[in-house]
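Hello,

Our lab assistant flagged a job as stuck in the queue for most of the afternoon. It eventually completed. Since we weren't sure the result was trustworthy after the delay, we are filing this so someone can double-check. Below is the sequence as submitted and the structure that was eventually returned. Let us know if re-running is recommended.
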Amino acid sequence: MATLSVAEMEALEICCRILGIQLSPEQEAAVTSILKQRDVFVSLPTGAGKSICYAILPLLFDTIKKTKGSIVIVTSPLLALMKDQARIFNEKGIRTVYIGSGHDDANADEEVMQGEYQVVLFGPERILQSSKWRKMLLSSVYQE
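-- returned structure --
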């Protein structure tokens, strides 16, 4: 497993404190691999905290880079789960929006386009069926 630099480890500890969480060894391994720009496949039981592996990333990237504006885009066919995750992440202070079946909020759409959310949860049909969202992914906001 890749190891983090001292600065990365300190940033990870800060983010965990801010979010009020403690990562399991499996979660930490996944986040570490992502920071080292490696592909990651996480297979854990339901309720084991897979989603925190991506929810912590915008705050972690911003902390490491000493900047603001990191965004993580997640696609999942599990609509009820994404809606629930959006609620939970927002309660933890991670600005999150769900874009999928049943979503019809033009204000939120505009904020997503402008990069105002840290985590954007998409139903795959939204990206596949909407040129608006595919174009968004090509915008300068989403290209870093």
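-- support follow-up --
The delay was a queue issue, not a problem with the job. The result is valid. Strands lie at 72-75, 96-99, 119-122. The mean pLDDT is 91.
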